[in-house]
Amino acid sequence: MTTKRCFLKEREEDKSKSYQASKIAHQLFQFIMNSELEGFLELWGHLITSYFSKLDDGMSSTVEYLDLSLKRLYLTQTIKNNKKDKSIQFLDSLGSELLGKKEWASWFSLPFSKQPSSDPTFKVYFSKSWEEKLNISVVNFLSTVFNGLEKPKMLNFNTERKARMIMLKEMESLKSEVLKLREKVESLNQELESHKSNKIQGRTPTHNKQLQQQQQQQQQPQQPQQQQQPSSSVETSPMTVNRSGVKTPKKMEPESKILVFTKQETIQASSPVQCIRFNPNFSALGCATEGGQVHTWHYEGTNRDTNTINGNVPVTALEWTRPEYGEKLLLGFNDGKVKLMNLNSQDGASINTNHKKVVQIRTPPSYSNLFAVASIIGDTFRSGALHIYDLVSLQVVANRIEPSLLNSISYNSPGTLLACGYQDGFIRLYDTRVSKFVQKWKAHRNGVAGIAFGPDQYSIYSVGIKEKIKTWSASQFGQNIKTYAYAGVWRTTTTADVAVDKDDRFFLTSGRENVGIVYHVDSVRPVQNLGNHTKPVVSIDWDPIHNIIATSSLDNSISLHYLKN
Q1: Against a cut of 0.70, is the pTM above it?
Q2: What is the C-alpha to C-alpha distance for residues 20 and 517, in angstroms, rounded to an integer?
Q3: E strands present in 233-302
Q4: Which parts of the sequence belong to the ARMC9 CTLH-like domain (predicted)?
């Protein structure tokens, strides 16, 4: 019992709360609400010393932001709770540390301000919404940090045991496969010997058998044509000649390998369209243009609500935030800036990435307060950067710079992996749980133009800049599953969108022509072209809820293709 009591006592005193981010955040905010300065500083100092000090330099700005915000929250809470003595205690304890920092210069007057909640300097820090957003930021940041920690070996025991059992099963399966292949090789060797022995007679056993079948068919009376029963799903084409010289029927592609549309609609934008995206609810379509305008179309029944945001810098990337963050757009610009825009108020906050141009922005499909930005850096336009931002604080959480342009990024469905397609032809997989690249492989000779995860969380579609579309397995170290014929992207661009339907039967992309290109996963060549544009299609998207495919072009037009349900 003594051992148990000691264990329970140690668990209660555990500052790391078994690495449960929500519990640590709750304890932090409890200290702040109760004006317990010593407890707050001790716990926050423990986190900085034990965990934050070991992070990459790219995350130091986030730590500094949270440190500043939590201390300001503590000070404002003492004012809210009419604990002026606690405010003065805070400034006395940390005064020497904060005095030289200009962001704290005006805060020394807070305890003596008559109405600080109305003061423009302090007003935002007294709002409930700011406090809630800070709480979310702390929880998410702690989760990111703890997910990147290496687990103790004892905690990994069960995981490693399961992995070992899976490997043993795979080994048994592979052994069985080897035996089958050996039998097949022996059978083929026997057939080869048989062919060699019959070669003297000038014909093969297969040829003899086919001649016998032809003679039997000639001897049988022909049946009336109406008695033939063709397959319901497969038709036959004209006869083809095989290597033996015998004519055989060739099967046509099933009709199910094409998409059936009920109508097509065209929308005009104000200038050449750079990017289109459906929102996560699939109730609206956003469009970014070369002229700096952003158009959105909301659908409700048969009515369409149109909204336009005007600007003077070309918009090169567009992404919607998740519904829980409200009606907002993430916009990337030709000057390297990123803006979080509120559609209702048409105001927003800007982020300067200090880069030349934003290429793409993506948010995870699952709940997360992070978003990814792909951009170009350097005057030579030869290097690419991947930035991961916190949507609440708009602070950078992580960044990775590679000596190659980053053309396309895509999250998998859980948001745990981010696939990155580079100009050097490599696909690099970024694991959001550990904030680093965990895999890479050479995918295309002339660079990757577009990339997208399939409906499952491990299949990846990649589009080559000059040739081929390929599918890969992220769970099998970049194993190439299938290759599709492709002519390459439009000559003035190095990027291409990829969209996959929810059943993983069709996917579409853009290319050199004035159309969207549709592929069936079982057909190595395109099965359809979409759109009646007069200039190349540069962006596409797929709404699986309402069965709408959108294609946009440099001719200022957007085509909506309505699929038959």
Answers
A1: no
A2: 47
A3: 236-241, 247-251, 261-268, 273-278, 284-289, 294-300
A4: 23-147
Is-contact 386 366, C-beta < 8 A?
no
Strands (E), 279-327: 284-289, 294-300, 303-309, 315-320
Widest Cα–Cα separation across the chain: 112
Q: What 3 state SS string does 394-405 have? A: CCEEEEEEECCC
**Chain length of the chain:** 565
Dist CA 199 CA 179 (whole Å): 30
Contact 510, 497 (CB under 8 A): yes
Radius of gyration of the chain, Cα coordinates, nearest whole angstrom: 31
Q: 96-116 b/e with 16+ CB inside 10 Å = b?
A: eebeeeeebeebeebbeeeeb
What residue segments make up the domains of the chain, in order of their start? 14-147, 261-563
| Calpha distance 406→383 (Å, rounded) | 8
Q: What share of the chain is helix, strand, coil (3-state, %, to 5)?
A: 35, 30, 35
pLDDT in tens, 147-201: 766 656 665 666 677 778 888 887 888 887 888 888 888 888 877 877 766 655 5
| Dihedral sign for Cα atoms in the order 120, 125, 129, 130 | positive
Q: Which residue has tokens 């490997």?
A: 167
Closest CA to 110 of 100, 96, 125: 125
Domain with residues 261-563, CATH architecture: 7 Propeller (2.130)
